């Protein structure tokens, strides 16, 4: 025990202590919790053709978040406002702010909903076509082997065009869609184009396209389920005796 006391006394003395310990003793008012204030600001991702402004972003993620578009006027504000600042601007309830921050981080990390990877978009509409490209092109998403050395993929094309604006060797297959059968484009929210025999489709930016729907509480949710069901059984027993 005496040796332990000596060690503690030596730690309390700044003489001969490590520089980091001396700095902490010399500035007791500095709190480690405040270090996050000195962290660099998070990166603001650039807008994309499918998501060019805050209004479109809020519309896509759904849950009626588009009603807050006037409170987030710029793209920079969308990706830099803190939860407290969103609260002060009137983004309520708290679950709406959490949902917005969740989708904001996903977008910052390049995790888009369907259509987010489109590069040819006109008035919120991206058109898709099935084309044949060399097997070595792109990834395996939405592909069907058609012939030796070739495969069918779904690509984004300019409005009204049948082929992409870049060479076939450079095209990137559209994510989150697939080819059904020989050449029919399918996927969530994919709308077929008339006169294309299923080989043409479009994705339209609309309310709730990327929405992650909330679950529905059953019998009061997880916290109250046991209580609600116990009261129900008790009431049923009383009614059965009557």
Detail the topology: elements first, then pairings.
Blueprint: H1 2-12, H2 19-26, H3 54-61, H4 75-78, H5 83-89, H6 94-108, E1 125-134, E2 143-147, E3 150-157, E4 178-180, E5 184-186, E6 191-192, E7 200-204, H7 221-241
Antiparallel strand pairs: 1-3, 1-7, 2-3, 4-5, 6-7
Structure description:
The model has no long low-confidence stretch (mean pLDDT 84). The chain is built from 7 helices and 7 strands, in the order ααααααβββββββα. By secondary structure, it is an alpha+beta fold. It is 31% helix and 15% strand. Residues 207-229 have a biased composition (Basic and acidic residues). Its main location: mitochondrion. Residues 207-242 are annotated as: Disordered.
Q: Largest sheet, order of strands side by side?
A: 2-3-1-7-6
State the distance separating the first and last CA atoms.
73 Å
Give the beta-strand count.
7
SS content category = alpha+beta
* Strand portion: 5-15%
Element string (H = helix, E = strand): HHHHHHEEEEEEEH
Radius of gyration: 28 Å
Helix content: 25-40%
| Largest β sheet strand count, sense and barrel closure | 5 strands, antiparallel
Overall average pLDDT: 84
Task: Give the CA-based shape.
Answer: extended
**Low-confidence spans:** none
Q: What's the tally of helices? A: 7
Protein name: Small ribosomal subunit protein mS41
Biased composition (Basic and acidic residues): 207-229
Keywords: Mitochondrion
InterPro entries: Ribosomal_mS41, SAM_Ribosomal_mS41
